[in-house]
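Lab notebook, design round three. We kept the backbone fixed and only want residue identities now. Task for the bench partner: fill in a sequence for the structure below.
Input structure tokens:
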């Protein structure tokens, strides 16, 4: 599980197979071992005689999966209730926080990222962004992609989703208020982005991850 995937990969046992690891390390797994089909948000991947999982808590999900395979749904549900292990997780996507991914960013890209985070709610304008840093749009895109493997817009979208997740976890604000605060006038557009990123709707995310005050 998790880091164990790298041990199997280094031994060559996963070449030609599908696998996963913690979402935080899937880019590195794919970079080091291009013969592996890396599933970046899968919670459990079974391929042949191997089963790989996300981070260490996914061991619980794997255990329930084994119970279900050998004992059926009823016993798996009972095991979930007795062990206090939720039987509702099917993906790592809701837990992904792109701002935590290690990035070999240059000072230039660091500055662009800081600017984007500081102007989260502003309308995205690539030409204006390039002008702010006194480069052409082509140069901006090239340097950003070289350092991060992504684009400024993709980074901004990930940062907006991350900000929305924090507000959903910690605030009482309505979802449409959060939508506007992170830069979207159209609720449907934001909802589509949020679901495509996390695998759940904003309402579902709030129900699952809402931080309750200590009693």
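Proposed sequence:
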């Amino acid at each position: 599980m998790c880091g164990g995937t790298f041990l199997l990969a280094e031994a060559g046992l996963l070449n030609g197979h599908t696998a996963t690891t913690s979402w935080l390390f899937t880019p590195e797994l794919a970079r080091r071992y291009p013969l592996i089909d890396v599933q970046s948000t899968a919670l459990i991947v079974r391929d042949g005689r191997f089963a790989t999982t996300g981070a260490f808590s996914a061991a619980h999900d794997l255990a329930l999966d084994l119970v279900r395979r050998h004992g059926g749904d009823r016993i798996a549900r009972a095991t979930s209730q007795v062990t206090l292990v939720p039987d509702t997780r099917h993906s790592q996507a809701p837990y992904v926080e792109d701002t935590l991914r290690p990035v070999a960013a240059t000072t230039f890209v660091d500055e662009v990222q800081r600017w984007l985070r500081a102007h989260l709610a502003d309308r995205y304008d690539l030409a204006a962004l390039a002008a702010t840093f006194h480069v052409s749009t082509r140069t901006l895109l090239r340097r950003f992609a070289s350092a991060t493997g992504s684009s400024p817009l993709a980074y901004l979208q990930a940062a907006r989703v991350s900000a929305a997740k924090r507000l959903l976890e910690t605030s009482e604000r309505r979802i449409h208020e959060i939508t506007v605060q992170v830069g979207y006038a159209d609720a449907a557009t934001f909802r589509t982005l949020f679901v495509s990123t996390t695998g759940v709707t904003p309402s579902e995310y709030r129900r699952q991850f809402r931080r309750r005050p200590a009693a």
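Keep this in mind before ordering anything: The chain has two domains: 1-95, 97-215.
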